[in-house]
Specification:
The complex is a heterodimer of chains A (101) and B (189).
Chain A (H helix, E strand, L loop, with lengths): L4 H21 L3 H25 L4 H31 L13
Helix pairs in contact in A: 1-2, 2-3
Chain B lengths: L1 H22 L3 H21 L3 H23 L16 H18 L17 H9 L4 H23 L9 H19 L1
Helix pairs in contact in B: 1-2, 2-3
Classes of the chains: A mainly alpha (101), B mainly alpha (189).
Chain lengths: 101, 189
């Protein structure tokens, strides 16, 4: 039984589901960042698999740019995390809910 | 055969680690499992002949990103479990996950791509990546470097403002400020 492109794409979809679940469910800012890292990694797996099965290096280049985006997201996100903890003394996203509707 | 075995082993391990990450209440545990999942993801890259990408994955994610998160967690007490007020029903989450999975499965059903692009013969993966990155994607590469610079400055500005205030003693500062105000009022009176 050979591993095909569809196996990798379904695995990437599964990992994406896990990340999406984390983004929807968790209310901690740090957990939100973790879940978004999972989302980006799922996309990376799909890109590398497509790059391998179509014999095209460009998918890997896209994965490199995604890693660069993830790194800059971490830098800005961590600054925001520290700022939020300084302002509100917690990293719970419910505290950002200032409009009572 | 070996690759099939490795695919399923890495797939199961990665999914399990990421599930632990999104469901665990303790942030330290979920960070550790996320780092483990990143390492297992790099196993896929080595399986897919993307050697350089695998090495970058280990160095950047498991090295830099996780270390940065661990550094950020030092600013507040992360040992206590995060109590979140989840008011929605679990069925909503399940339904949304199912709908999203269905959408993805519909969108990525067998795509067979026949044509293949030319690659440099005899060149190893890092050489191919370098040739592609510094010829066809040079502008995007430079813009990515500028983006990283902007992100670095943004991080410094966001986190470094009023760095002389200690985070753990913010309440003490506040109390002291109120005491100073009271003292001033008494002096004026």
């Amino acid at each position: 039984m050979e591993v095909t492109l569809n196996h990798y794409l379904l695995l990437a979809a599964l990992l994406f589901m896990i990340g999406l679940f984390g983004v929807i469910r968790r209310k901690n800012l740090l957990m939100l960042f973790f879940a978004s890292e999972i989302l980006l990694n799922a996309a990376n797996v799909a890109l590398a698999a497509i790059s391998y099965y179509t014999n095209n290096i460009q998918g890997q280049i896209m994965a490199f740019f995604i890693i660069a985006i993830a790194a800059s997201e971490v830098a800005v996100g961590l600054g925001f995390l520290i700022l939020m903890y300084k302002r509100m003394n917690s990293v719970d996203l419910d505290n950002l809910q200032i409009m009572k509707g | 055969m070996f690759e099939t075995l490795a695919f399923y082993a890495f797939g199961g391990l990665t999914a399990a680690m990421f599930l632990i990450t999104v469901t665990n209440k303790n942030i330290v545990y979920s960070m550790a499992s996320l780092a483990a999942g990143m390492i297992f993801i790099s196993g896929f890259f080595f399986l897919l002949n993307a050697d350089f990408l695998g090495v970058v994955q280990i160095v950047v994610y498991a090295g830099a990103v996780m270390a940065l998160y661990a550094f950020g967690m030092m600013f507040f007490d992360s040992s206590k479990p995060s109590n979140e007020h989840i008011t929605s029903n679990k069925s909503i989450f399940g339904l949304s996950i199912g709908a999203a999975l269905l959408t993805v499965a519909m969108l990525c059903v067998p795509v067979s791509v026949e044509h293949s692009y030319k690659t440099l013969d005899g060149a190893k993966n890092p050489q191919q990546v370098g040739m592609e990155l510094f010829t066809n994607y040079l502008l995007a590469f430079e813009m990515a470097s500028i983006m990283l610079l902007v992100a670095m400055i943004a991080g410094i500005v966001l986190a470094g403002k009023r760095m002389d205030d200690s985070y753990t003693t913010t309440v003490d500062h506040h109390d002291r400020h109120i005491e100073d105000l009271k003292l001033n009022q008494e002096q004026r009176a």
